[in-house]
Design a protein that fits this description.
3-stranded antiparallel sheet; two-stranded antiparallel sheet; alpha+beta; 13% strand; single chain
């Protein structure tokens, strides 16, 4: 961890003093895990200001990232964002708990909570997917359910009318 900070500080000093003049950043800044440098977060600047769909603190974003890592492992980036969007859509929907933790830990809501995979380490991709969904990206068109029809064991889920498929998951409202 110390090595990461030293690399960042030295890089900033070199860039600031030798190559460019440092100026304030007016765009919203995002941070995501950098899997290449252990334990580091990398800053990404977005050119347009965005507003979060719901308010989440850093721990909640990390929890959402872990859920994505467990539920959408092996899925495309769009599939990861879709899983995050479903969770956020549930927080906003009056039929579900009104907190991220409440939605994620709702009894039988997500298989990764039951089987312990909620504790997997998030990746830079799952962290970025969580942030993209938090700032309004929703490839599901407001879906509040998703499942993998190849492995789903829940019988009531078959009563839902899926409207979209992304990778191995189908999505329903």
């Amino acid at each position: 961890m110390d090595r990461c900070y030293k690399i960042i500080i030295v890089s900033l000093l070199v860039l600031g003093n030798v190559l460019i003049s440092i100026k304030p950043v007016s765009a919203r800044e995002y941070y995501y895990l950098d899997n290449k440098t252990e334990g580091c977060f990398v800053q990404v600047q977005d050119t347009e200001k965005k507003e979060a769909v719901i308010n989440l603190n850093d721990d909640e974003i990390m929890l959402l990232s872990k859920l994505i890592a467990g539920e959408a492992r092996g899925e495309s980036y769009e599939g990861q964002v879709a899983v995050a969007a479903v969770v956020i859509n549930r927080v906003k929907d009056s039929r579900f708990p009104d907190t991220l933790e409440g939605v994620i830990y709702q009894k039988n809501a997500f298989s990764v909570v039951r089987n312990g995979n909620i504790n997997v380490e998030p990746t830079s991709s799952t962290y970025k997917a969580a942030q993209d969904a938090l700032y309004g990206k929703d490839p599901t068109n407001d879906a509040i359910y998703f499942w993998n029809p190849e492995i789903s064991t829940c019988s009531w889920i078959n009563t839902l009318n899926p409207h979209l498929r992304i990778g191995n998951h189908v999505f329903a409202k």
